[in-house]
Design goal:
Elements: H1 10-26, H2 36-41, H3 57-64, E1 80-83, E2 86-89, E3 96-109, E4 115-118, E5 123-131, E6 136-152, E7 156-174, H4 176-179, E8 205-215, E9 236-238, E10 241-244, E11 256-257, E12 260-261, E13 280-289, E14 292-299, E15 314-326, E16 329-346, E17 349-364, E18 367-379, E19 389-390, E20 392-403, E21 408-418, E22 420-422, E23 429-441, E24 444-453, E25 467-476
Parallel strand pairs: 11-22
Antiparallel strand pairs: 1-2, 3-4, 3-5, 3-25, 5-6, 6-7, 7-8, 8-13, 9-10, 12-16, 13-14, 14-15, 15-16, 16-17, 17-18, 18-20, 19-22, 20-21, 21-23, 23-24, 24-25
Length: 477
């Protein structure tokens, strides 16, 4: 049965709506309420975002510079006090932010069973982020996600509602001063290549930067996993059996039916994993030279948490090439390869998992286009598996976001999944989602969304719906 924690009574719903009205009243549209970094640097949210949570080119550079304005190292004296050898914010709101997002009304039609629910935003996040010094920054996220689907041993699943460390929790360190590289500090041009010399603007270097902790390596990917305009929807579990898989971008999904983690927990077919995880333990190194970003790192393992059952890690490499940056046009293309060593289990044997693929984005005036094509292959399958197993799978996702007015964002996303895994269990999927998101202000929006199953309703948990309609809210402070 679905846990009680996933349902809210009428009084709780009314209290939530009342809170939303109060927040709108407290922060009128002529004076936007803006999250931590915007408050600190006295900027609008749209300085870093095309529309939250999407980053524009400046926002990506801000992240690359360790949460500082690119090419400017402020010395961290702005509203800071000295504690020992580090600087600490004097204004708590410069590092504190809060986000709530999820559905207020949701309805699955054509599913077994049909359901229409009055609910409340599932994902509540508190995060602290800033810089200790010019070279060291931090990001701390605490999260409560209601009704998240988690695999358990025996091929079963459960829904959990818990509060704790969120998707990301890391330190980021700029290694350039330590390496004493023969070029200027991060974000500056090489000596002798200042703007206007040699017929060009010089070559900009940023990093190398290292992130360590619970990280999302795909932050620097052309189509980042954690910055979805059309939000993920968790699946449905009944008596340990997964009745319906979650709705996520299929390119980033696990894609294999019957695969388990190295410690024997079931893995949801639409779970975002490996390089495209929303967050897992690992170490990441990335640097940018001109328009080229290079990234490498290693993750602990498939949903291994802070304890890995084997000593092998999952290395990855990614390269991103930026283009445009003028005449209202910008974008990038990325390629990745991720090798999972003994990172998953089929039957009772550990297997290797190879992931590779491409992504790209194009931003032109009020239009953002994103796409990704990811292939997955299971290697080192056990010889004696009990039934045929398809060891290859792929997923394709493409999305367009169009800012129709200064407040209305229209989005459409197409997902296609060619699944792998045990042939007796697997099914392919195609879905299209359309959404209208209305921004009351930069950081407060309501959305109306419809996701439609193009493959037709079936008994498989991947197809157990005809369409999903939701009215929801996304709020940052």
């Amino acid at each position: 049965m679905r846990p009680v924690s996933c349902r809210w009574n009428r009084n709780e719903i009314l209290c939530g709506l009342f809170l939303g009205v109060i927040m709108i009243t407290l922060f009128p549209s002529s004076c936007f309420a803006i999250p931590a970094f915007a408050r600190k640097y006295d900027l609008s949210c749209t300085s870093c975002h095309t529309n939250p949570p999407r980053l524009n080119a400046f926002g990506e550079a801000f992240h690359m510079a360790g949460f500082q304005i690119p090419t400017v190292q402020e010395g961290e004296t702005k509203k800071k006090r000295n504690i020992g050898r580090v600087w600490s914010e004097t204004d708590f709101l410069n590092i504190f932010s809060f986000r709530a997002n999820g559905n207020l009304v949701e309805s699955f039609q054509g599913s077994n069973p049909d359901e229409t629910n009055l609910t409340f935003p599932r994902d509540l996040e508190i995060y602290l982020a800033g810089t200790y010094t010019d070279e060291i920054s931090y990001f701390i996220e605490l999260d409560r996600e209601a009704g998240a689907v988690q695999g358990i041993p025996g091929g079963f699943f459960e829904e959990r509602s818990e509060f704790g460390i969120g998707k990301e929790f890391f330190l980021m360190v700029d290694l350039q001063p330590l390496l004493k590289a023969p070029y200027a500090k991060s974000g500056e041009t090489m000596p002798g290549m200042a703007h206007g010399e040699g017929g060009g603007g010089g070559i900009m270097f940023m990093g190398p930067m290292v992130m360590i902790g619970k990280i999302d390596p795909s932050t620097n990917f052309s189509y980042p996993t954690n910055r979805q305009v059309i939000l993920n929807i968790p699946g449905r579990v009944d008596s340990g059996i997964l009745q319906r898989f979650g709705l996520t971008p299929y390119a980033f999904a696990s894609k294999f039916f019957g695969v388990k983690t190295a410690d024997g927990n079931s893995v949801e077919v639409t779970k975002e994993v490996l390089y495209n995880t929303p967050g897992d333990f690992g170490i990441d190194l990335h640097a940018m030279m001109g328009n080229l970003l290079l990234q490498g790192g290693a993750m602990q393992g498939l949903q291994a948490g802070n304890r890995d059952v084997n000593s092998k890690k999952d290395p990855y490499l990614m390269a991103r090439l930026n283009f445009g940056q003028e005449a209202y046009t910008s974008g990038s293309i990325s390629g990745l390869i991720n090798w999972g060593n003994d990172t998953a289990m089929v039957d009772t044997s550990l297997v290797n998992w190879l992931r590779y693929g491409f992504s790209g984005n194009l931003k032109y005036k009020y239009l953002d286009l994103y796409g990704a094509f990811i292939w997955d292959t299971i290697r080192n399958l056990p010889v004696g598996i009990s039934s045929p197993f398809d060891r290859t799978a792929n997923g394709f996702t493409i999305e367009g976001d169009y800012l129709a007015t200064d407040r209305l964002l229209l989005s459409i996303r197409y997902d296609q999944l060619s699944a792998g895994g045990f042939i007796s269990q697997k099914a392919d999927g195609k879905a299209i989602a359309a959404q209208a998101r209305f921004y009351m202000r930069d950081n407060f929006s309501f959305y109306l969304r419809d996701s439609y199953n193009l493959e037709g309703v079936g008994t498989n948990a991947l197809r157990n719906f005809r369409n999903f309609v939701a009215l929801g809210v996304d709020f940052d402070f």
